[in-house]
Amino acid sequence: MSKMNDHNHVPYFDHGDTAVQEAKPQIKEPSMYQVVLLNDDYTPMDFVVELLELFFYHSREKATKIMLDIHHAGKGVCGIYTEDVAATKATLVNEYSQSNQHPLRCEFEPCNQKEF
Ligand code: TYC
Description:
By secondary structure, the protein is an alpha+beta fold. It has three helices and three strands. It has helices at about 45-55, 60-75, 85-100; strands at about 30-40, 75-80, 105-110. It has a three-stranded antiparallel beta sheet. Helix 1 crosses helix 2. Bound molecules: L-tyrosinamide (TYC).
């Protein structure tokens, strides 16, 4: 047998019994963001309720409850989304409020919950 092909004598040859660690799947659940509305003294209650129906698909009843919570607490959650969706909703709501001459402010911030 030629020395060149005698694998038993080559120090680093894999004999086929090497344990191969499979890579863990590199996927994670996306970070979630809550879209919040801030209270102010000027935006009409009806406008806020309609906006909550229009942009966040809440029923009239739920929208009214959220609006009143914000009115009393100063701030409240409208919905929970991935970052892109939360950012887009906040921008659209702020543009809509401005175009109707209301000072209503909408923001988004990281949150730990998955749904609202
Ligand atoms: N405070 C407002 C009023 O009395 C109503 C209001 C509710 C405004 C929620 C903003 O995010 C808001 N007309």
